[in-house]
Write a structure and sequence with these properties.
By secondary structure, the protein is mainly beta. 10% of the residues lie in helices and 33% in strands. The protein has two helices and eleven strands, in the order βββαββββββββα. The termini are far apart.
């Protein structure tokens, strides 16, 4: 008899049509200041938390997706518009959910900020949390992001 794992973190959209669950602790909670994230959430930055795709499931309904670039897609509720997820289009890539869509967002404090080159000059946010420019982590990351082409208008 197989044992069903209990969710570690759950969340969903505003109208309740789409729900998700993580079955392992959330990883790499972060703020992203890149222009694509700013547009995707309609704000100064996106707050995201995630984990391995094999530890994640859509548990109610299914999101609609937008290919925000040639390398990634973003999930959202087609009924109410809530931004829900972000993932690069690679099998080993993590899936991230918007922290505001978590049922218990306080359990996912950010540990790093990305895309700080696009941070708005007047934003003073979690200044004690380190940040890095897009692609600055390694030569491989720089090469990966250099190939990204935005599909946003």
């Amino acid at each position: 008899m197989s044992q069903v794992k209990a969710p570690v973190a759950e969340g969903g959209c505003q109208c309740g049509a789409v729900r998700y669950a993580f079955y392992a602790p959330l990883e790499n909670s972060h703020a992203c200041h890149c222009r694509m994230c700013q547009r995707a959430v309609g704000g100064a930055f996106a707050l995201l938390a995630g984990g391995k795709k094999e530890n994640f499931a859509w548990t109610k309904g299914a999101p609609a997706f937008f290919a925000s670039s040639n390398l990634a897609h973003r999930g959202f509720c087609a009924a109410c518009g809530t931004p829900l997820s972000f993932a690069y289009d690679m099998p080993e890539a993590r899936i991230y959910v918007t922290s505001g869509s978590l049922d218990a967002p306080e359990g996912a404090p950010i540990v790093i900020q990305y895309g700080v080159e696009s941070r708005w000059s007047w934003i003073r946010f979690c200044e004690d949390v380190s940040g890095e420019e897009t692609g600055a982590a390694s030569p491989q990351a720089a090469e990966f992001f250099a190939g990204m082409k935005s599909n946003q208008g």
